[in-house]
């Protein structure tokens, strides 16, 4: 007859353990390794974040947030303050206007964003007057030292 019975035979594969158990153990081992790697990465990142904040002379802080400057006599802070006054004098050149003379940084804060923004309250005297007490000015400077870039973004009398 045309219809004959054929028996198909497949080779038998022997597994020492049920297949789902070996996959489960492999997945658990992978997850343990992944968890260990992620934990290590978090610990290392946390260390570098705290180290960079403490090395900034108390000027470091949360990315994007403003942090108070604890040492207004820090050489970098004073340099930024002098830059702000010099830049203001340069931008407001006038034969009728006397230049400001930097005295000190009174207080300030920093913000870390693609560089560092400095918001400083500066004491400065009017170079043409004999005033001993300086007027106070609010200056904002954006600094990116790795690009040799520094810009006075705002300067106003308080």
Automatic annotation (TrEMBL):
Pfam families: SQAPI. InterPro entries: Cystatin_dom, Cystatin_sf, Prot_inh_cystat_CS. It comes from the Eukaryota. The chain crosses the membrane at residues 34-53. One of its GO terms (molecular function) is cysteine-type endopeptidase inhibitor activity. Residues 61-158 form the Cystatin domain. Keywords: Membrane, Protease inhibitor, Thiol protease inhibitor, Transmembrane, Transmembrane helix. PANTHER family: CYSTEINE PROTEINASE INHIBITOR 5. This is Cystatin domain-containing protein.
């Amino acid at each position: 007859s045309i219809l004959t019975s054929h028996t198909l035979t497949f080779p038998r594969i022997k597994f020492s353990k049920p297949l789902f158990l070996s996959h489960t153990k492999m997945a658990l081992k992978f997850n343990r390794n992944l968890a260990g790697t992620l934990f290590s990465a978090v610990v290392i990142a946390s260390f570098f974040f705290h180290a960079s904040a403490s090395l900034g002379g108390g000027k470091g802080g949360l990315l994007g947030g403003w942090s108070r400057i604890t040492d207004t006599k820090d050489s970098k802070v004073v340099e930024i303050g002098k830059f702000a006054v010099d830049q203001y004098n340069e931008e407001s050149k006038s034969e009728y206007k006397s230049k400001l003379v930097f005295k000190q940084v009174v207080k300030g804060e920093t913000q870390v964003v693609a560089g560092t923004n400095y918001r400083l309250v500066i004491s400065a005297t009017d170079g043409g007057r004999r005033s001993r007490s300086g007027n106070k000015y609010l200056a904002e400077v954006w600094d990116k030292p790795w690009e040799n870039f520094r810009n006075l973004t705002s300067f106003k009398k308080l």
